[in-house]
Amino acid sequence: MPNFLPTSSNLSLSLSLSLSASAAISLSLQQIPAISVFGRELQSALLQTPEGRSLATAPGTDGERKKSVQCAGSDGESIGNCPFSQRLFMILWLKGVVFNVTTVDLKRKPADLQNLAPGTHPPFITFNGEVKTDVNKIEEFLEDVLCPPKYIKLGARHPESNTAGMDIFAKFSAFIKNSKPDANEALERGLLKTLQKLDEYLRSPLPDEIDHNSIEDVKVSNRKFLDGDEMTLADCNLLPKLHIVKVVAKKYRGFDIPKEMTAIWKYLNIAYTREEFTNTCPSDKEIEIAYADVAKRLVK
């Protein structure tokens, strides 16, 4: 049986992400009490106990890299789908935490794991005997514990960046779960409206991009991400969901994010060049499988 809890009493953090069954990530930290975070896999019923595969490495603050051995997806190799767990994984990666992963099959999870938070759906975190189940609270906790000077802050400087695109996933869910043809057009318009709002935010210059002493008027932002040229917590939250929208809406509704929304496409394409996103992201196939029973056919 895999060891999914930290072996050190006060110098490690264990994170279980939603990667097909589950995975426990042991991280080398200093002066931090034992922490455990557990995540889920949305289509675990499709899986057998997978063999751990070395799929990614995460950078350490000293430049050292350690292998991340993660559970397989439905094909026995790839990462499974869960944007909430990917969000937490991206945070750890961006902070440069050195980590190792040990696989745990959630269908046959050890009794100790089941007893940590009975009746609670992952992802969740335990700290000093207290269980935290809200992903936003877990994010706040990691940002507070993994802090300067050893770890960078990932909070957005502009409050608007934290809410940009916040309605997209809800509109997408309503659109993809609908089975009534007469409601499809209105739901698609609702999704397009939220995407357009995000595109406008990404195109609009942030206050620090505007030089008030210059005679030139900056009309279009040149930044790479929501809050600037570096990823923040806002991106860790939005990007996994936005990618799912792109993949699933195309597969099950023939819907593409309009090419005219150039800022969104620029945002996604830049994310696809970043290992913090790509090495924690499931394949398109895994995302499609996860939504196979969620997406509803339009029935006349």
TrEMBL record:
GST C-terminal domain location: 128-291
Membrane topology: Single-pass membrane protein
Name recorded for this polypeptide: Chloride intracellular channel protein
GO cellular component: anchoring junction; centrosome; chloride channel complex; cytoplasmic vesicle membrane; mitochondrion; nucleus; plasma membrane
Annotated region described as Disordered, given as residue ranges: 53-72
Signal peptide segment: 1-23
Keyword S-adenosyl-L-methionine: no
Catalytic activity from the UniProt record: chloride(in) = chloride(out); iodide(out) = iodide(in); fluoride(in) = fluoride(out); choline(out) = choline(in)
Compartments it resides in: Cell junction; Cell membrane; Cytoplasm, Cytoskeleton, Microtubule organizing center, Centrosome; Cytoplasmic vesicle membrane
Top-level taxon of the source organism: Eukaryota
Physiological role: In the soluble state, catalyzes glutaredoxin-like thiol disulfide exchange reactions with reduced glutathione as electron donor. Can insert into membranes and form voltage-dependent multi-ion conductive channels. Membrane insertion seems to be redox-regulated and may occur only under oxidizing conditions. Has alternate cellular functions like a potential role in angiogenesis or in maintaining apical-basolateral membrane polarity during mitosis and cytokinesis. Could also promote endothelial cell proliferation and regulate endothelial morphogenesis (tubulogenesis).
Record organism: Seriola dumerili
Primary localisation category: other
